[in-house]
């Protein structure tokens, strides 16, 4: 067994104080996200883990890219027939997680998920590079396939088919908006006395609390 007891660091880059935070968590997210986006050592600030609960009751987590956020919530796109899509269909709750180790920060978001309007999915799909569009058409995401060549052959066929024409968005591909009801902001601090600020939606207002680390 490899001993990892000494794998630790001191967190001391920043702090999270109630008098300095925004009263709305989306605004607080915006401030932190902008800092992460402008950091030279963070390559994909919009990378987030999305956890859903599958039929066997076990959570499943995967990394996706945040593509937009509004006062209503956080938007990402996927195949509706994928494992995550089927899990969301059966249980609309999910957890989103951002981790920016270079800033010693993480954000945990509990939310209800809904499909976005079709025109939004159309707009984003056609803004993607054509190769990405074709990839969405080619891949029966999460399904078992015979081999890698199966996808490559199908991709070449579609490249010829849509060489001079627009690729239609598949009906089973589109966006979700995660509408948050609880958001926690975590800032690493020395001696493991980390700052944890929790926003909880009560009716139409956000209640703010500090959690013990």
UniProtKB/TrEMBL annotation:
Question: Where do transmembrane segments lie in this chain?
Answer: none
* Reactions performed catalytically: pyridoxine 5'-phosphate + O2 = pyridoxal 5'-phosphate + H2O2; pyridoxamine 5'-phosphate + O2 + H2O = pyridoxal 5'-phosphate + H2O2 + NH4(+)
- Which top-level enzyme class is recorded in the Swiss-Prot or TrEMBL entry? oxidoreductase
The residues that the entry says bind substrate are 8-11, 67, 124, 128, 132, 192-194
Q: List the GO biological process terms.
A: pyridoxine biosynthetic process
Question: What does the UniProt keyword field contain?
Answer: Flavoprotein, FMN, Oxidoreductase, Pyridoxine biosynthesis
- Pathways per UniProt: Cofactor metabolism; pyridoxal 5'-phosphate salvage; pyridoxal 5'-phosphate from pyridoxamine 5'-phosphate: step 1/1; Cofactor metabolism; pyridoxal 5'-phosphate salvage; pyridoxal 5'-phosphate from pyridoxine 5'-phosphate: step 1/1
Annotated Pyridoxine 5'-phosphate oxidase dimerisation C-terminal domain ranges read 173-213
Q: Which Gene3D superfamilies match?
A: Electron Transport, Fmn-binding Protein, Chain A
What does the cofactor field's note say? Binds 1 FMN per subunit.
What cofactor is needed?
A: FMN
In its UniProt record, a GO molecular function of this protein is: pyridoxamine phosphate oxidase activity
Instruction: Give its E.C. classification number.
Output: 1.4.3.5
Q: Where does FMN bind?
A: 62-67, 77-78, 83-84, 106, 141-142, 186, 196
Which Pfam family, an example, fits this chain?
Answer: PNPOx_N
User: InterPro entries given for it?
Assistant: Pyridox_Oxase, Pyridox_Oxase_CS, Pyridox_Oxase_N, Pyridoxamine_oxidase_dimer_C, Split_barrel_FMN-bd
Where in this chain does the record put each Pyridoxamine 5'-phosphate oxidase N-terminal domain?
41-160
- Give a yes or no for keyword Oxidoreductase in this entry: yes
Alphabetized HAMAP family for the sequence: PdxH (MF_01629)
Cross-referenced PANTHER family: PYRIDOXINE-5'-PHOSPHATE OXIDASE (PTHR10851:SF0), PYRIDOXINE-5-PHOSPHATE OXIDASE (PTHR10851)
Question: Into which family does the record put it?
Answer: Belongs to the pyridoxamine 5'-phosphate oxidase family.
This molecule's function is given as: Catalyzes the oxidation of either pyridoxine 5'-phosphate (PNP) or pyridoxamine 5'-phosphate (PMP) into pyridoxal 5'-phosphate (PLP).
Q: How does it assemble?
A: Homodimer.
What name goes with this protein? Answer: Pyridoxine/pyridoxamine 5'-phosphate oxidase
Identify the species of origin: Chryseobacterium phosphatilyticum
